[in-house]
Amino acid sequence: MILHQILRLSSLFRSAVSIHLRRNIGLSAIVFNKTKELDPVQKLFVDKIREYNTKSKQAGGPVDAGPEFQKELNESLARLQWAYGEGDLTKFPEFKFEEPNFEETPK
């Protein structure tokens, strides 16, 4: 009853509350869907991703990659190494940032 009176106050307030309620209902629908079982298509998709993940860990790299893929990978790495210099291009670079010295030096 109080909510009904609040909604009657003004059209601006009514529209703001309406938008707020729609957003909350939309968010709660997402939460309820996460707790339910996935539909068959989503379940199949997630199962295939998990299957690929286990195959990838077992193979130690890309799944079902033949010698052509490895040859192209090595050629690409050689080109990049020639263009950008030394270093291992298969690993993410490590950055080391030093703290700046903000102390004033005497003149």
TrEMBL record:
Keywords: CF(0), Hydrogen ion transport, Ion transport, Membrane, Mitochondrion, Mitochondrion inner membrane, Transport. The keyword Ion transport applies. It comes from the Eukaryota. The keyword Repressor does not apply. One of its GO terms (biological process) is proton motive force-driven ATP synthesis. GO terms for cellular component: mitochondrial inner membrane; proton-transporting ATP synthase complex. It is found in: Mitochondrion; Mitochondrion inner membrane. Pfam families: ATP-synt_F6. GO terms for molecular function: proton transmembrane transporter activity. Component of the ATP synthase complex composed at least of ATP5F1A/subunit alpha, ATP5F1B/subunit beta, ATP5MC1/subunit c (homooctomer), MT-ATP6/subunit a, MT-ATP8/subunit 8, ATP5ME/subunit e, ATP5MF/subunit f, ATP5MG/subunit g, ATP5MK/subunit k, ATP5MJ/subunit j, ATP5F1C/subunit gamma, ATP5F1D/subunit delta, ATP5F1E/subunit epsilon, ATP5PF/subunit F6, ATP5PB/subunit b, ATP5PD/subunit d, ATP5PO/subunit OSCP. Mitochondrial membrane ATP synthase (F(1)F(0) ATP synthase or Complex V) produces ATP from ADP in the presence of a proton gradient across the membrane which is generated by electron transport complexes of the respiratory chain. Subunit F6, of the mitochondrial membrane ATP synthase complex (F(1)F(0) ATP synthase or Complex V) that produces ATP from ADP in the presence of a proton gradient across the membrane which is generated by electron transport complexes of the respiratory chain. ATP synthase complex consist of a soluble F(1) head domain - the catalytic core - and a membrane F(1) domain - the membrane proton channel. These two domains are linked by a central stalk rotating inside the F(1) region and a stationary peripheral stalk. Belongs to the eukaryotic ATPase subunit F6 family. This is ATP synthase-coupling factor 6, mitochondrial. The lineage of its organism: Eukaryota, Metazoa, Chordata, Craniata, Vertebrata.
